[in-house]
Write a structure and sequence with these properties.
Blueprint lengths: L10 H5 L6 H24 L12 H53 L7 H31 L5 H5 L12 H9 L3 H18 L7 H26 L4 H25 L3 H25 L12 H15 L3
Helix pairs in contact: 2-9, 2-10, 3-4, 3-8, 3-9, 3-10, 3-11, 4-7, 4-8, 4-11, 9-10
Length: 320
C-alpha cells in the first residue's frame, strides 16, 4: 500500500505512476481523441456527414445525454460500493487482529499469579504466542489467496511471512496444517484446546467467568476473519460488471463520432472526447482497485507489514 500525507498537497503525487490508474485511463482515452481529430478533419475537408447526422439533430443529443447520465450513475455506484467494501474489509482485518491480541494479552495476564509450575506457565505463553502468530499469517495469506483466485497452497505461502519461532511447533502439527483445507479453523481450534488444557492444569489464577472473556475475544476475531473473507471471496455480481464494461466500451467507440458532430474545432473535439472517456474509465479503474483490499497489488493492504506488527505486539507479551 502506498503511504502519503493526505492532509497536504504534494505535486509529486500527480506525477506518481506506481499504483495510479491515470496511465491506463490515458491509454484508453488517447486513441479516441486521435480518432476524433481524424474524423473532424475528414468531415471538414471532404464534407462527409458523420453517421448521417448533423449538429442540429437534437434527438441524438438528448439520447446521448441520457446514455452518459446512465453510464455515469452506474460507474459512480460501482465506485461507491467498492469504497465501502474496501473500508469494510480493512476494518474487519484490524478488528480481527485487535481481538486476538487482546485475548492473548488477557491470557498471559491471567498467568501472572499462577500457582502452577513455572515451566508449565512458560510453555503455555510461548505456545500461545506461536499459534496466534501462525494463525494471523495463515489468515493473511488465505485472504490474499481468495482475492487472487489462484489455486495455491495457503499453508506454504503462510510460511513466506515472518513467524514467531515456527520451529518450536512440532513437525506433526505442521504436516497436518499442510494437509487440511480449513487451516485457520484448525489453528483456532488448537488455541482453544490449549486454553482449556491449561485451565485444567490450574495455570490461570482467575475465575472461569473472567477466563471466558478470552474465549469471546478469540471467537469474535474469527467472526471478523469471516467478514473479511466475504469481501475477498465474493466479487460484485457478474451481470452488473459485464454490462458496465460493455457500456463503457460502447461509449469509448461512439464518443469520437458524436463529439465531432457537435464540436466545430478539431482541437476541442479531441479534448472533449479524451476527457469524457478518461473520467469514466478512471472511476471504473478506481473501483476495480478498491473492490478487494486483500491481495498483492500495490494498492492492497500490506500483509507482511501487518504480520510484523502483530509479531512485535505478541513478543512484547513475553517480556518480563
Amino acid at each position: 500500500m502506498i503511504q502519503y500525507e493526505g492532509a497536504k498537497f504534494h505535486p509529486r503525487l500527480l506525477l506518481q505512476i506506481r499504483g495510479s490508474v491515470v496511465p491506463f485511463s490515458c491509454m484508453v482515452a488517447l486513441p479516441g481523441a486521435v480518432l476524433a481529430v481524424v474524423l473532424k478533419l475528414i468531415a471538414e475537408h471532404i464534407g462527409w456527414p458523420l453517421l448521417g447526422l448533423d449538429d442540429k439533430d437534437t434527438v441524438a443529443g438528448v439520447a446521448w445525454t441520457s446514455v452518459i447520465s446512465l453510464l455515469g450513475f452506474l460507474v459512480v455506484f460501482r465506485t461507491s460500493q467498492a469504497y465501502s467494501r474496501f473500508w469494510e474489509g480493512t476494518a474487519s482485518l484490524y478488528r480481527m487482529q485487535g481481538e486476538w491480541f487482546n485475548a492473548a494479552s488477557s491470557l498471559v495476564a491471567f498467568c501472572k499469579l499462577s500457582k502452577a509450575d513455572k515451566s508449565d506457565t512458560f510453555v503455555f505463553k510461548h505456545t500461545l504466542v506461536r499459534l496466534i502468530s501462525l494463525l494471523n499469517a495463515v489468515v493473511l495469506m488465505d485472504l490474499s489467496h481468495s482475492a487472487a483466485g489462484a489455486h495455491v497452497r495457503t499453508s506454504a505461502r503462510a510460511f513466506e511471512l515472518e513467524l514467531i519461532d515456527a520451529e518450536g511447533i512440532d513437525r506433526q502439527s505442521l504436516l497436518m496444517i499442510n494437509e487440511v483445507t480449513e487451516k485457520a479453523e484448525l489453528i483456532f481450534h488448537w488455541i482453544m484446546q490449549l486454553v482449556v488444557e491449561s485451565d485444567n492444569r490450574k495455570i490461570f489464577s482467575v475465575a472461569p467467568p473472567i477466563l471466558s472473556r478470552a474465549f469471546q475475544e478469540l471467537a469474535s476475531g474469527m467472526l471478523r476473519y469471516h467478514d473479511a473473507r466475504k469481501i475477498a471471496s465474493v466479487p460484485l455480481p457478474f451481470p452488473y460488471v459485464q454490462c458496465l464494461e460493455l457500456l463503457l466500451l460502447f461509449h469509448l467507440i461512439a464518443t469520437p463520432f458524436l463529439t465531432c458532430m457537435w464540436v466545430k474545432s478539431a482541437f476541442w473535439a479531441a479534448v472533449v472526447s479524451f476527457m469524457q472517456v478518461f473520467f469514466l474509465w478512471s472511476l471504473n479503474s478506481i473501483a476495480t482497485e478498491l473492490e478487494n483490499p486483500f491481495g498483492e497489488d500495490v494498492n492492497d493492504l500490506p500483509a507482511r507489514d501487518l504480520q510484523l506488527e502483530m509479531n512485535r505486539r505478541l513478543l512484547m507479551l513475553l517480556r518480563p
